[in-house]
Amino acid sequence: MHHTHNNALDLSSAMSKPVQVLQLYPEKELVFKGPFTKVVTTTLQLTNPTDKTVCFKVKTTAPKQYYVRPNSGIILSKKTVSISIMLQPLFHDNPVELRHKFMVQSAFMPDSGCNLETIWKSVPDGGFMDSKLRAVLMPANEEEVEDFSSDYQHSSSSGGIEAEYRGLLDHSKKLQSQLDTIRIENQALRRQLEVLKTDSSENLIRSNNPQEDSMNMVAVIVVAVIAILLFLYFCRSIL
């Protein structure tokens, strides 16, 4: 009886979870083709088909093994963002047996606009839209392994290259964060501009109302006719 109650709770939770609005390509699998003695990169595309701005972030079960850039940001309406996912060199007897997974979480940007960190903290548990993908590691043939073995030995002898690479990635992350902030501020300015345009249009419509103009013209004509009649009556009285 207790087990049935838990199943009902799980079903209710699944039904209440919001559906992912982002379109992912690929949808289910991220393919990495070896050899894995060097950095292997694949691309994930996120498309926002809605009329609202969507925030996103990408998570993985192996954060030390993958560099994801950008790993968070915003996607404007009807736009697509390309995510570069870089698998670091592997030292594993059989890399294809690894079970690495990824998750794309998303949420709608509030109309007022705010910092990305604030948005993630404000969304309650279970309020995110998410999609899951698995990493598929395809082994290379023996010729490819031989071609890259000498390059890998040369690069592994110099730790400075990896440090420089990580520094560039960190700098790229900071630039992406600044770009996201600029985009949010730009959206807020656009909304303010639209409000000003709407107010200006309403004032212009009121000032150029043709019905009011025609009524004013009729009033002028009536006053003029009355003035002429009074003038003629006055002239006849004198005569």
UniProtKB/TrEMBL annotation:
Gene3D superfamilies: Immunoglobulins (2.60.40.10)
Name of the coding gene: VAPB
Species this protein is from: Trichinella pseudospiralis
Gene Ontology CC terms: endoplasmic reticulum membrane; plasma membrane
Protein name: Major sperm protein
Described function: Central component in molecular interactions underlying sperm crawling. Forms an extensive filament system that extends from sperm villipoda, along the leading edge of the pseudopod.
Lipid bilayer topology: Single-pass type IV membrane protein
One GO process term, biological-process aspect: endoplasmic reticulum-plasma membrane tethering
Gene Ontology molecular function, alphabetical: FFAT motif binding
Compartment(s): Membrane
Keywords, ordered alphabetically: Coiled coil, Cytoplasm, Cytoskeleton, Membrane, Transmembrane, Transmembrane helix
